[in-house]
Protein 1
Amino acid sequence: MNKISGAFKSFGAAISGLCKSVIGAVKSFFMHWNRPAEGNYVPSKETVAYSVGGMGVQLLAVIYSNVTLGSTCLLLGSIYGMKPTTLALLGFINAGATIVLQPLKSWLIDNTPGNKGKARPWMLWLSIPCAVLLTSLAFMDTGWNELTMTIVVGILFIMMNFIYQFYLGQYSMLAQLLSPNSQERANIISISSLVYSFAPTITGALIPQISKLFKLGQLDQNFYRTIFPVFAILGVLLTLLVYFGTKERVIVPKAYKQKVKFKDAMKKIVRNKYMWILNITTWFQFGRGAITGILMWLYIYVLQNANIQSILSLVLGTASGIGMFMAPFLIKFFGKRNVAIFTNLIAAAASAILIAFPNNIVLLFISTYIVFWAVAVQIISSPAMNADALDYQQYATGDRFEGMSGNLGMIGQVIALGTGFIIPALYEFNGLLDDYDILYDTVVREPLFRSLAILSAVFGVLCAVPFFFWDLNEKKHKMMIEALKERAAKDNILHGYEHESVLSSGELFDGTDSLEVEMHSSEILDTGAADIDTEEIGVADIDAADADAKVKEEAEVVAEQIDSSDDGGEEV
Amino acid sequence: MKKKYVVSALLILAIISCLFAFAACNKQLSEEEAWEAYENALAASKEYINNRNYFIKYKYKDGDMTITQKLNVSYGNDNIDGWEDFVVVNKGVEKASKITTTYVNSYFGYSLKSGVKPKKATKEDYKVGYINNDGDFYEDSDIDRLFGLKSGDSYNGSVFGADEDIEKYTMGYVLGTLDGIGRDSVKLISANKNGAIITLSFIVEAEGLYYSGYNTDGNCLTVRITADRITKICSSDENAPAYFINYAGPKFSLPSYDAKSQ
């Protein structure tokens, strides 16, 4: 009895603690509306601008989701009458164009003109062309012959897709540039994800209702000709909120002028093992969620009950929200590496249960819920880790490669062209060919779901494996940032920019340590030796006599030392 | 460094295993294996003729349109012990490509009294008959006759508006098209196994069979077997019907026979 009451008391204390943490976080949020908290860089109002502006990005994403190159696309398939094979061919051409244009995009990002940063300017410049091109796809003439329709839609789509993906990528990248504080970045990504998710939720409910006003509903071209311009205009206006309401804060000296040459940049990026870890894990992500792809089949062929489907959809929708909300807390307590490993392994375990019980509907939903939750946590942790990897790049070579680092992703895109056939092949091996009604039959479903469960479990583990090599923990990252601040401060002093901020935004960071860093840097210059605590990072001393070229040269030496060191990973 | 080699080796092993697994799923069957699979599948499928659930689609091209007609038969009422001759039938025409055809639903079989839940129903709560598109119920007890109705027949004073007689969609009829197809009457030209699917192609040279005339490599009879049951019967001719057989179908309940009077 005592044990039970003790357990209840502990549970109650934990809930009370959690509630207090949440209340404390909310209070802190409003208290720091105009000025960031100590140790942070971003005031709350800027987080709000980024988050609400993200709804604009999502509105354009809603338009994009209605013009995908697939036979299930109502506009391109049912209304324009484009054949599935034509759409598949355009999809293939588009994938090729994306790979070919990636280096151009990377170069443009890292050589962004002006001094407003790398993400915000492109969001501003691309928002209107993106909106115009997306909207134009609703205004094709259904009287055109097949060839004309294919060529016009194909050209427009390829242009639109390049610009749209560029624009979308810059919004995601901006979260990594708002603050050099890793935990703060994770918090911002979490909050913004929860806020901007409202946009697709609201439009998802509104679209069917709006379509009722049109004669043919969602098969009426006028429906798209109405909603596309409205969403596009709103999307652009909210994008302005992102541009004017946020600032990019990377740690660079005042005299720093980035000029990126493609070959030089790639030579440096390929030696960044953290970028490789993040990219390798994406090669296996296609398989991790294989079992979740059957959700609509469960509703249509197994459950066959629209009311229960609505309830379950709502319940499943909470998985992402809870995951994104929990992510910053999990990251704070366990670190990003451990969160990445555990969430992938949890997703794998949830899928593995279905190997034994492939036809158990309850387990199927629980498994899907857990996988959705795990993926949602990684929506927060992955960009945060990507930002850490970019900081490491700057620490190692003195360069910021937000754009060029995306070129490593080209390898993943090429791999995806092949792995994209694996799950469809698995469907066909298990009897799913030209008649999907076969899914009503348990005898056919069971081996198919079991195969998908095996695939999900295996690839969930494979997604976790690369993170065992991630040894850039939060402590090391913080020390790296301090080292970058000191280098930038030294450079400012040497180039006559004493008292200038080391942040690209021009702000003095939380106001308590800027003077301290400057004084420290002055002392270093007076004594002629770097006084950086390098022991734990394993970095050699840097001679600060010649700031510009010397820092870069020495930094490259440092990078070599870090890469060749046998620095063991953190124990899980 | 050792950790890297071990992990890389494991990854390569995993990829090679997957490739071998996929390769093993795809093979050519010998003639003996093919006929054995066909005969077993046909026998297993025939068990569904009069006493199991099934869902058949009958697809053919008519000019520019592709017409699909469906028959969904559900036997047995799990809620009433020992009552295995319960039949609920749903037949309809699916929308064809580019041109919308009239969707016709015809319901035949047992209908439950309104307000009574299936789990608490008894035999006396059911009536056998036909419900038309207007929701009018016509009582009958002759299921065999219902299955034999043809388009244009008059039924209890109402002209039956089905496009095709139901008989053509029944399992008995569909499997009946394979009557006479055997080792002695047809030539097996290919037998492929791909995962759970076996695809057999035959040249039918014998006369008097449903598929007589499909006697060239480019125009042959194809039978697909999935999970040891026949799931598709077709020829290379798009204008000739292709049958898709599923051994379970969508759930549906026959509207209540007294719903309109409520």
Note: The radius of gyration of chain A is 26 Å.
Protein 2
Amino acid sequence: MQTWVEKVILFVWCGFSYVFLLSPMVVVMGASLHGGEFSAAIKFPPEDPSFQWYSKIPMQQFEALGLSLIVAAVATFLAALIAVPAALGLVRSNFKGKFIVTTIFRAPLQIPAIVSGIAFLQFYYLIYDNSSLMLAGTIPGMLIGHVFIATPFLFGTIVAVLQRFDHRLEEAAHSLGAGKWRTLYRVTIPTIMPGIYSGGLYAFMVSFADVPMSIFLTAPGFVTYPVELFYALENDFDPSILASSSLVIIFCLIMLLGVQKMVGLETLLRSGGGSAR
Amino acid sequence: MENRWIAYLIPPFIVTLLLVAGSQFVFIQNSFYQDLGLGRTGTDLTLVNYLNFFTDSFYLKTFWITIKVSALASLFTLFLGFPIAYVIARMKSRLAMLLLAGIVVSTFVTIVIKVFGLIIIFSADGVLNTTLMNLGLIDRAYSIIGTQEGIVVGLMHFTIGFSVLLLYSVVVTVPPSLEYAAQIHGASRWRVYQRVIIPLCTPGFVVGGLMIFNMCMGAFTSAALLGGGRVLTLPVLVQRTVMMEVKYSTAASIAFVLLVSVILINLISLIAIRRLRSARLVIA
């Protein structure tokens, strides 16, 4: 039983942590409603609320958002193509050096993203020197980098799901006459689907939010949204960027709600954040 | 049967190995050539970039600042994250899921947006400065941009969502029945924290703290924006060396120093996990 003193302390402490955690996002969304004129327009709390800046978001930011969404979606799909067979193969087989193989699959998580960024940039330059194929500043180049950082999230969650997998399900399918492939597609894959969804969500979000890797792989006119925002903050910005940031926050909320409806938050937590990193 | 599963493993393994080894090998090799500036490098293998790094007080100071802000940020993050994780883990209502959803969403939103919010909060005529000045606590506007405190706050925002999820998975391994048992035997609540909860969670704090420290060491975005070019950390230095000075080999050597430090910390935490496991304090 908790005493009331303890409850008060925990309540205040938690309240403070939550204010700390959520205030920047609340402030960005609040300030985006400011109705004043261009200069001195970044104010919180907003005066004279209006949605004027939402209609003034320049095309450039929408293009950046579009690029980010496409890259994140395709990278997540490709990462799943790597991670699903890798996780199945690793959990189901037994061989010497399994630990090393696991470490290599998880390595991109341990390597700081900025190091991966400069590594891929120099990797692409080397390829260019030898074959005049320039990957830096192109969609394939960007995708390879994002698949690299996204795969471990999917790998981690699927491994976690597979380790709890009940083998009797497959044996049952087998004894009822299903072949190897039929068992895989009708029993195994559907059972690990929640792991794929929640790992995929993490992978998508990591790719969608990435700056340190993408900043090396962008080119003028080819910029992902977080990098666009990064440069805007380093130089000069107008409140339209607050409006597009607010849209991104709302998008993240919707994604979470969607996945919660599909697989439940419990699955997301059990397999996601904690174990993946 | 066994062989079939290994066949699944081989293609993705080759792809991953190619990406990991290929990219890492190229930049590590580059770091061993002398930097002639403007993207040109010498032709002989040399340690000159590393000698520069470890003899130049500017680089060493940057290294030290990176370690210092990362350590401070991980300590404060654990301090702020633990009560949330504990309260949610012990909560029986549906509110717990809502609180967790708040944490998960905050981990999804890109750190650039959060730093944007911080810049607004801490701006000269922002909410915080105005309130503090009205209360008479400070006499002139305080700015966190370009200070080490600013970077610490930014790093905390980068890691706190993850740290709550991590600590949550630690706290749920401590069954509430242990707390009841201690109380039935006459322990006060304070005593329960001191002798039951904290000791059982300590392995999680150690391992989690090292993971968070690692994230901070490699954190680029928040450190770059809140350092404002005045306070540098290693990741920021890597990016600036490439983008502003176009010195690829020098940047590669800094990146390699960063990579090695991070791997060393990983090894320490791996050994810590093994030790704690063998001591039967199984966590995570």
Note: Residues 59-92 of chain A form the longest helix (34 residues).
